[in-house]
TrEMBL record:
Signal peptide: none annotated. It comes from Pseudoalteromonas holothuriae. This is DUF218 domain-containing protein. The chain crosses the membrane at residues 7-30, 36-56. It comes from the Bacteria. Keywords: Membrane, Transmembrane, Transmembrane helix. InterPro entries: Cell_Envelope_Assoc, DUF218. Residues 81-214 form the DUF218 domain. PANTHER family: ENVELOPE BIOGENESIS FACTOR ELYC, INNER MEMBRANE PROTEIN, PROBABLE PERMEASE.
Length: 249
């Protein structure tokens, strides 16, 4: 009964429910235009498939399995801990941490963990919308404000790399960002002459979900797929820009 309840509850979530309704509508649509009818069915089924933990795991796990978490015992000395910006939702009624999205909180948590271990390292928080909120949250979590540098002027990772490079060249730098974002971020910092030590966070482990959820579409899974797809587009954009102008990025 527990599994049945969970399956029905999962199917009634907005994404799977919408896809089911669309599929039912397609059953009653005119099939005179077979090409459009096929494309519509393909779109619904494709959206369902890439939103399931089973398919997402097949796509994401091979990528993330090549990425290792930061191990404290392997690095005796770190001078700079760079936490790249992510989602934030400004709302003055809330505390700083409550205004940070899941991505920002995940990155900041890892950065604060490292800052507590490496007592003399400077914590650098970046991102136009998230830097100030990250700084306030880090202070609340026990990091002295004198150890924190804020970089609120960066619009994207390219800006973060360019703006922070003067403070990071020839230093031991831990780069904290999402696992999906790590390769592109490391590349952009390397292009500015900054060697970084990866400190990835926000891994997706869809294989650990219960079997009854593996083939049910979930909005959180679709978001993870979207994040990884965005990184593919970002890497393609970098190649195009560098192909036109090697000094561009």
């Amino acid at each position: 009964m527990f599994v049945v309840k969970k399956v029905l509850g999962s199917l009634l979530m907005p994404l799977p429910l919408l896809l089911i309704v669309l599929a039912l509508c397609l059953l009653f649509m005119s099939k005179t235009n077979k090409k459009s009818y096929f494309i519509a069915w393909f779109s619904v089924l494709f959206a369902w498939c890439i939103s399931t933990p089973f398919i997402a795991g097949k796509i994401i796990s091979p990528i993330e399995s090549k990425i290792s978490a930061f191990e404290l015992k392997k690095h005796s000395h770190i001078e700079k801990i760079v936490v790249l910006g992510c989602d934030a939702y400004a709302n003055n009624r809330l505390s700083a941490n409550a205004q940070l999205g899941g991505c920002s909180l995940s990155r900041l948590t890892e950065g604060v963990r490292l800052a507590h271990h490496y007592k003399n390292a400077q914590l650098i928080v970046s991102g136009q919308t998230s830097a100030h909120l990250m700084k306030l949250t880090a202070i609340d979590l026990g990091i002295s404000s004198s150890r924190i540098r804020s970089n609120p002027n960066a619009l994207d990772t390219k800006d973060e790399a360019k703006q922070l490079a003067p403070y990071l060249v020839d230093r031991k730098v831990a780069l904290v960002t999402s696992a999906s974002h790590l390769a592109r971020a490391s590349d952009l910092f390397a292009a500015q002459g900054v060697e970084t030590i990866p400190a990835p966070t926000q891994f997706y482990s869809f294989s650990s979900q219960p079997q009854y959820k593996q083939f049910i579409a979930q909005i959180t899974v679709l978001k993870a797929i979207t994040v990884h797809y965005y990184e593919v587009l970002g890497k393609v954009w970098i190649k195009i820009r560098r192909g036109i102008n090697p000094e561009a990025l």
